[in-house]
Predict the structure.
Amino acid sequence: MAATSTDARSSPVVMFTGAGGAASESIYRQWHDRYDLRFADAEPMAIPSTIPPERHVVIPMASASDFLERLARLSHELGITTLVPGVDEELLRMPDLGALCPELDILVPPPWFVNVMIDKLTCAQAIAERGLAMPRTVTADRAYEMTYPCIVKPRQGRGSRNVMVLRTRQQVPAYLALFGGQPDAYVLQELVVGTEYTVYVSADAKCRLRSVVPIKVLEKRGITIRAEIDMQETIVRYVEALHEAFRPSGPYNIQLMLTNAGHVLPFEVNPRVSTTLCLAIAAGADPIAGYHSVSGAREPISPVPKLRLRRYWQNTIQVSVS
């Protein structure tokens, strides 16, 4: 979307949406001296209390009829120069927001990339069609084609919601009865055994690859709880090939498995930043500055000492305003 050099700005004003997510407090701690930050969420109580209240912004749900109008007005009133969407449901609405706010830099890949990758079936098909390794993926109405055990999940979804392992074909109808909807709204995907990685990827406005940060998942409960940067060259080469095949701009995230035989097999591509962005930032990544890169040179990512993420629960007692 819009590309204005950060060099021309004395203090870029950056707003993250989905600020109730796990990365917000770390992003604030690491970047509050670099950028003028705002954190937006439809549920104000979800924004971490460690972020100063004056940095909190309440926005409507992406499904709200006034979502675009309210977000455009807030961006103008707060002087937002860069918006970083963090919620899947918002992504498809970003082109319309860009039309309302042409001066606003929206750090999200182009609409064609979002449309393909946000659907897990078309994501798998597009990757395979470009000759890259990808686990076999079919809709649930073609369960007879799949080898079991396999993974089943909604074609659109996030946070590992309704993701299960099915041991036999006979479990498919039970899964569909449990969660409802048509069989073609779900995919069955080959079960891949190995080590899971979530990979931060960022390109500049001219679609030149700026950063690849493989992050090994050590513990996961819907979101990544423990992880460490692990600059596996095999993963970096695969991501370089995938980026060259699609050439999107902006930041995105690839979830993949590295098998014991050393094969890289992605199972999802999220066309947005993920909650492990905070770990990539700690290693030297900056999708905001990187988006406006003049040279297109890779960002200096430091894998040594090995950086590790560990998330803890925080108990916050607040007075209800409802």
The radius of gyration is 20 Å. The chain is about 25% helix and 25% strand. The CA atoms of residues 285 and 299 lie 7 Å apart. The longest strand covers residues 209-221.
